[in-house]
Design goal:
2 domains; three-stranded mixed β-sheet
Length: about 180
């Protein structure tokens, strides 16, 4: 009886924290590094993964530098809006990866690929997870998926055509 109690105590003191520690290590280090290696094999480059924060520190540093520097041309708004993505777009051209914490975000600058992603009919490119609280209070095309998204998209299509917008632009500017 005493040996059995000792075995259970060792199990809860050593084995369970070890399993939790390995799962945590897998989630914050091994999985992101494996994804980074797979993306590099596919030709998608970017800044390397940093533990827990990803590229958030670099983003904040560049944003602070941009705000402190004098403004250039007012027509060149992209470097002011997101200097980090602008820097990566210049360095890696068409496709690159940005790390938000432990999850990678692939940025696409090629118009053909953008069109393919936006006209996703097979479900190959799922939307990001939305928290249940946000899903409770928001509805519309940004939240819907699958058949519900398709139905609402076809309902909105005639209203958002170029001809409809051009015909109603006088009304829109009148109210502004």
């Amino acid at each position: 009886m005493g040996n059995m109690l000792l075995v259970f105590a060792l199990y809860f003191v050593i084995v369970i924290p070890l399993i939790w520690g390995l799962k945590f290590l897998y989630k914050i280090w091994w999985r992101p590094k494996r994804i980074e290696k797979q993306l590099k094999k596919q030709g998608i480059h970017g800044y390397p993964y940093r533990l827990l924060y990803g590229n958030i520190k670099e983003m904040m540093k560049l944003a602070k530098e941009t705000k402190s520097s004098p403004l250039g041309s007012p027509h060149d708004a992209v470097p002011l809006a997101n200097p980090f993505l602008h820097k990566l777009a210049i360095a890696y051209k068409k496709t690159f990866v940005v790390w938000h914490g432990t999850s990678p975000r692939v940025a696409i600058m090629d118009p053909k690929l953008i069109k393919e992603v936006l006209s996703n009919k097979n479900g190959d490119f799922p939307k990001n997870e939305i928290s249940p609280l946000i899903r409770l209070f928001s509805t519309g095309l940004a939240v819907y998926e699958g058949q519900k998204w398709s139905k609402h998209r076809t309902d909105c299509q005639p209203c958002l055509s170029y001809g409809e917008i051009k015909a109603n632009d006088a009304c829109i500017f009148y109210f502004l």
